[in-house]
Design brief:
Helix content: 40-55%
Shape: elongated
Structural class: alpha+beta
Number of strands: 8
Order of helices and strands: EEHHEHEEHHEHEEHHH
Distance between the termini: 115 Å
Strand order of the largest sheet: 3-5-4
Length: about 270
């Protein structure tokens, strides 16, 4: 059984991704170890739901050798788990096979090899990379570096070309004939560190976007408050009688001159 990080898996650390690392015997060992937990009976449905994401599970209702042999003939491994002092659950399990592109999920994509992935793609009617739906392409690229090229088949293996460089870099290759041309699909499992960095970058980008939105909201609020403060500074009570006269009163001599000018205009 593989480890999650540096710690061995337990029922409580099992999830729909790491369950794909296990085989049938591993599942029964986890369940047997879990019998010591008092809450196993209460949470058995939750654990079985996780296991069911990667394994076929069938309850054995008739516990007789001839019945069990039929389950085993179908490739199921039969075992049991003690739920409490009086109850024991017996069932058969079998690891699900990934045969079609529709079997690929975000949980299992990193638990297959590049050669296995290309086998699955090849079964997709030989249509090549573009024949896959966008959702399937996204799942695949979540776990693998993918490159494609379509060239005349006599140029595909040209020395020093893309094909040679990709193979030297550790990529597996699927060649799909298309008449006189050949499509090459290159696949290589992404390093765990790179996958973690991509996830972290996406999380940080989301955090930065949220912070920018908050900053914009703060700026809008500040502008609103500043405008209100400026408006509040204009207070009618501050206009005294003296300031009002100072604002509109003019020199008497200027008024006499203006009156004379008006009189002259009237004579015209």
């Amino acid at each position: 059984m593989k480890e999650a990080g540096k710690k061995a898996l337990t029922l409580k650390t099992l999830n729909k991704s790491n369950v794909w690392d296990l085989q049938e015997n591993d599942i029964f060992r986890l369940l047997e170890a879990g019998e010591k937990d008092a809450d196993l009976s209460d949470n058995i449905k939750h654990y079985l739901d996780i296991i069911r994401s990667a394994f076929e599970i069938e309850e054995v209702k008739i516990d007789r050798p001839e019945v069990i042999s039929k389950y085993e003939a179908r490739g199921l491994k039969v075992g049991s788990v003690k739920l409490d002092e009086k109850n024991r659950l017996k069932f058969g399990i079998k690891k699900k096979t990934i045969m079609r592109v529709t079997d690929l999920t975000y949980e299992n994509i990193r638990h297959i090899s590049a050669s296995k992935l290309l086998e699955v793609i090849e079964r997709n009617f030989g249509g090549g990379w573009e024949s896959l739906s966008q959702s399937i392409q996204d799942i695949i690229q979540n776990g693998f570096d993918i490159s494609t090229t379509t060239l005349p088949k006599d140029r595909l293996h040209k020395k020093g070309g893309m094909y040679e460089k990709k193979v030297e870099d550790g990529f597996e290759v699927l060649e799909i004939p298309k008449g006189a041309w050949t499509e090459a699909i290159f696949a290589k499992l992404k390093p765990i560190e790179e996958k973690a960095k991509l996830d972290l970058d996406e999380d940080n980008l989301k955090i930065r976007e949220d912070e920018d939105d908050e900053d914009e909201d703060d700026d809008l609020r500040d502008d609103k408050y500043n405008d209100e403060d400026e408006f509040d500074e204009f207070d009618d009570d501050k206009l005294t009688e003296e300031s009002y006269r100072t604002t509109i009163e003019e020199n008497p001599e200027d008024l006499s001159l203006e009156a004379a000018d008006v009189a002259d205009d009237d004579d015209l």
